[in-house]
Amino acid sequence: MNIGEAASASGVSAKMIRHYEGIGLLPPASRTDAGYRQYSDKDVGMLRFIRHSRDLGFSLDQISELLDLWQNRKRSSRQVKALAQTHIAELDEKLKELQEMKATLEYLAHCCNGDDRPDCPIIESLASDAAARGRRRTASSTLV
To answer: Are residues 48 and 72 in contact, defined by beta-carbon separation less than 8 angstroms?
Structure first.
């Protein structure tokens, strides 16, 4: 099947298929005499595996490792579980960061009157944080 058909069958865009080939996540497709890419059912299966892994938030490096484990019938499930647990810990950390961001925004939104006056704690907080980061960058660059 051609790249468009493989994209439809796998749910991965043609652009991403080319990208995955380019970075070595997917082996290079065979080519027709005219140079068009041709994909097998096995390739589509790999693309579906990649897509589902991406849907679960795995990084490309983790997906590469998962693909290797998937294709290695001598692997232990312990290796797969360890990779999944590492990813769960990463997701927990991201979730914590998102919850902290949400709490901060909820507090700032609560403090904002949302009226016709220009006073806005949300803008003031963003401006003061930006100024503080600028001062830290300036101070650290003068220390070098």
So the answer is: no
Topology of domain 3-59, per CATH? Answer: Multidrug-efflux Transporter Regulator; Chain: A; Domain 2 (1.10.1660)
Separation between Cα atoms, residue 1 and residue 40, nearest integer Å? 7
Rounded distance between C-alpha atoms, residue 30 and residue 34, angstroms: 11
pTM (two decimals): 0.77
User: How many whole angstroms separate alpha carbon 134 and alpha carbon 125?
Assistant: 14
Task: Give the Cα separation of 67 and 123 in Å (integer).
Answer: 46
All structural domains of the chain with their residue ranges: 3-59, 113-144
Contact 50, 20 (CB under 8 A): yes
Q: Quick check: 135 pLDDT over 70?
A: no
